Amino acid sequence: RMLRFFRTAAEINGLIHPQTLQWVSKHKKKIKQASPERIRTELLKFLSHPNTYTLLKTMDQTGLLTQFFPVLERGRNLAPQYYKEGGVLGHELKAVQCFEDSVFLMPKKWPKIAKPTHLYLNQPISGGFTRYSVIKLAVLLHDLAKPHTAKIIDGRMRFFGHDKVGSAIFKRIGTQLHFSSDEIDLIAKIINAHLRPGNLAEQPRVSERAVYRFFRDLGEDGIAVLLNALADHQSYMHPKKQWDL
């Protein structure tokens, strides 16, 4: 029921009464009594709606989000020198907002790729949900292993290997929450590859061979990895400079 409050609010584009949020905050630990299948189903139904960032942030403020994703709690307030208020977790939530914005803005900003991208996002995968909601969850979780890999090197905090470690961690989480094998594979793939677009962008020139290798390795899910990278990048930008591409 606690997750259903947020899902219903997303369906009607509404708000949740403050007293209800207080009740959720008080009873949040009881979510663990629900079956993993119910949690996964309600979560993906919630994420299937286009404007869930504000509600997702509210869900975190009640403490509910990190009851079924406790791994995210370790990122709260981590590395504020990079991510400001909220640390890694705040960045991951902001990336969800940027992902939703990118899908909404695509017909206007990138009309040539909007239709095939939307077709890809709206295609169902096994488990009964479309790629859109599954990829949005991947965006939320793409940096989940940064706390596990954080090290100070030459005076800077670095997160070497958080992509590979995060992919492995999610496979365990996805199995525990009874995600379908295709859902687990897609999210793990995005987390594992989420640094590749940025690494390519740092090159003086992106060769056709590099582009070929990228899509050879990822297939059509290279689209998901690129959307995650775009949301990740835009989440660092000042709101006035976002989408100035």
Helical segment tally? 15
Q: Please state roughly what percent of the residues sit in beta strands, choosing from under 5%, 5-15%, 15-25%, 25-35%, 35-45% or over 45%.
A: under 5%
Shape: globular
Radius of gyration: 18 Å
Largest beta sheet: strand ordering: 1-2
Total beta strands = 2
Give the end-to-end Cα distance, rounded to a whole number of Å: 41 Å
Counting helices, strands and paired strands, the structural category is: mainly alpha
Biggest pleated sheet: 2 strands, antiparallel
Helical content class: 55-70%
Summarize model confidence as the mean pLDDT.
94
Catalogue the unreliable spans.
Answer: none
Quick tags:
single chain; 2% strand; mainly alpha; 245 residues; globular
Give a short summary of the structure.
The relative contact order is 0.11.
Report on the structure:
This protein has 245 residues and is an all-alpha fold. The protein has helices at 2-11, 18-27, 36-47, 53-62, 65-68, 80-83, 87-109, 111-121, 131-141, 146-149, 162-176, 181-193, 196-201, 208-218, 222-234; strands spanning 151-153, 156-158. The protein is built from 15 helices and 2 strands. It has a two-stranded antiparallel sheet with strand order 1-2. A hairpin with a 2-residue loop joins β1 (151-153) and β2. α2 packs across α4, α4 runs antiparallel to α7 (87-109) and α11 packs antiparallel against α12. The chain starts with a helix and ends in an 11-residue tail after the last helix.
